[in-house]
Amino acid sequence: MNSTRRSIICGSPARPSCRSPTRTTPSRPATPPAAVPDHPAYQQILTIFADLGRPLRARDLCQALGLPIVSKNTENIRSKLKRLVSRGILIETEPGLFTQPRP
């Protein structure tokens, strides 16, 4: 690129390279923690965590809820647990092991 073309594109021939301006994203205010979903299953799950007070797996929750231990039930509970983790209500201490965060 010759210097005339560079001065037109970049604004100044003294600039050694033509860089695009940096974009900054506007800062967003901190969002408050999300509320627990309205579905009663989430309330039941959190009640079990509060009652037992220990980390649980999806299979353990199925047993505590009185659900048959079959794939569709454990996967359904696991997806609910993952949703609670994504909202910051539960934490996953290791893969598949969920607990309430300590205050």
Present the secondary structure layout:
Blueprint: H1 3-10, H2 40-52, H3 58-65, H4 71-86, E1 91-94, E2 97-99
Antiparallel strand pairs: 1-2
- Summed over residues and divided by their number, the pLDDT gives a mean of 80
The biggest beta sheet, please? 2 strands, antiparallel
Which spans of ≥5 residues are poorly predicted at pLDDT below 50? Answer: 4-10
Net shape: globular
What letter string, H or E per element, gives the SSE order? Answer: HHHHEE
End-to-end distance: 60 Å
Q: How much is the radius of gyration in Å?
A: 26 Å
The largest beta-sheet arranges its strands as 1-2
Class of secondary structure makeup: mainly alpha
Number of strands: 2
Helix % is 40-55%
- Given the structure, what is the number of helices? 4
| Binned strand content | 5-15%
Describe the protein.
With 103 residues, the chain is mainly alpha-helical. Helices cover 44% and strands 7% of the residues. It has a two-stranded antiparallel ribbon with strand order 1-2. The protein starts with a helix and ends with a strand. It is globular, with a radius of gyration of 26 Å. Helix 3 (58-65) crosses helix 4.
Task: Summarize it.
This protein has 103 residues and is mostly helical. It has helices at residues 3-10, 40-52, 58-65, 71-86, and strands spanning 91-94, 97-99.
